[in-house]
Amino acid sequence: MFDVHHIRQDFPILSREVKGHPLVYFDNAATSQTPKQVIDVISDYYSRYNANIHRGVHTLSQEATDTYENARYYIQRHFNAAHPHEIIFTSGTTHSINIVAAGYASLLHPEDELLVSAMEHHSNIVPWQMLCEKTGATLKVIPITPLGTLDMDAFVSLLSSRTRLVFVNHVSNALGTINPIKIIIEKAHQVGAHVLIDGAQASPHIKADVQALDVDYYVTSAHKLCGPTGVGMLYGKEALLTALPPYQGGGEMIDEVTFEKTTYAALPHKFEAGTPHICGGIAFGAALEYLNKIGFENIATYENELLHYATTALLGIEGLKIYGQADPKTAVISFNIEGIHPYDIGIILDQLGIAVRTGHHCTQPIMDYFKIPGTVRASFSFYNTKEEIDRLVAGVRKAQAMLQ
């Protein structure tokens, strides 16, 4: 049975105070908090079997290797990849996207077209712009609507035989919109295009099945999933990853090295040059295991309750506007109050111990569309409470009274 007060005991940071107030952490879309179960796994690695992997015959190296690779197997099962070697450990979503972008530099031609949505995080825009500059390919943009949804009619009209790649986030970090990625993937495949889905914001809320989606590439970061920073995942279909050239050269990604020629290792090691974030990979698997014990259906149901409760309460504040009113959406609310800069609201909320995000959230095209400098973003997780939302609403009202 879902018990938020019992769950909160797993998160040591939630018991601290900020500026003399109990912490309210509503910046989960930037990074989630870490439960003691995952913290213990990190501590256990460094306390008991800290060693490099894949290279040593000694006991510590073998223990580290087995635990690290077991985490890969767990991640494979969680996302339902067909093979464990389709899961590439990376430093995070940005790294994962750049691996794919760099790989296509030798595969694209000037007549090729790439489609990206207008609601992407900068990390799912800039690498493709750089790729187009190198190859001469054209980057086209799928527009959004005033509700913060993708214009699907425009998407279909943009598709053609020249479309090689499509990039869309599963969930918008700025708006909370859940995009219809199954339809997007199907439509793209009909014209022979490959699809990369940025799952960083979806992964904490939605358990993606990459085989059911038939997605070509899916990427995410552990720190969005109650895990550590500096580690993430690139999923790719085996045939596509095999066709891509290595992203970096170095140790571990080789088969044989001579001064005349180097041959490369098989998947997944071909894309995992150098010593990886061993502890991070292990903790990534532990974080997913923790979330699965709670249950993603339970998480989604509870977070939807928080979203509706907060939406109703915030809309009761005169002059407050919410950006992103899609249905469905995840537990993210981006808002402004007429006549007040979002940064000023964030500063006052921090004085009350309430952590929110202010600014453009690395989605400047979205802000340009709505003709605003940024928003206040409150993003909720399964360890947040309605009482904390009440504090947020009271804090926003206080900020409004002070600043207007």
Brief characterization of the structure:
This protein is of the alpha/beta class and 404 residues long.
Silhouette: globular
Please tell me the total number of domains.
2
**Main sheet record:** 7 strands, mixed
- At CATH's second level, what is the architecture of the largest domain? 3-Layer(aba) Sandwich
Strand order of the largest sheet: 4-10-9-8-7-5-6
What does the radius of gyration come to?
A: 22 Å
CATH class designation of the largest domain: Alpha Beta
Going by CATH, what is the homologous superfamily of the largest domain? Type I PLP-dependent aspartate aminotransferase-like (Major domain)
Total beta-strand segments: 17
Please report the number of helical segments.
Answer: 14
What helical percentage do the residues reach? 25-40%
Distance between the termini: 44 Å
Oligomer: single chain
- At CATH level 3, the topology of the largest domain is Aspartate Aminotransferase, domain 2
Q: What would you call the structural class?
A: alpha/beta
Percent in strands: 15-25%
Output mean pLDDT: 97
Structure description:
The chain contains 14 helices and 17 strands. It has helices at 4-8, 36-48, 59-79, 93-103, 126-135, 152-158, 181-190, 210-213, 238-243, 278-294, 296-314, 342-351, 364-370, 386-403, and strands at 17-18, 21-22, 24-25, 87-90, 113-117, 138-142, 163-169, 194-198, 217-221, 232-236, 254-257, 262-264, 320-323, 332-337, 354-355, 357-359, 375-379. A 7-stranded mixed beta sheet has the order 4-10-9-8-7-5-6, with helices on both faces. The protein has a 4-stranded antiparallel beta sheet with strand order 13-14-17-16, with helices on one face. A hairpin with a 4-residue loop joins strand 11 and strand 12. By secondary structure, the chain is of the alpha/beta class. The chain folds into 2 domains: 4-30 and 295-403, Aspartate Aminotransferase, domain 1 (Alpha-Beta Complex); 39-292, Type I PLP-dependent aspartate aminotransferase-like (Major domain) (Aspartate Aminotransferase, domain 2), CATH 3.40.640.10. The termini are far apart. The longest helix has 21 residues, at 59-79. Helix 3 (59-79) crosses helix 10 (278-294). 39% of the residues lie in helices and 17% in strands. The radius of gyration is 22 Å and the shape is globular. The mean pLDDT is 97.
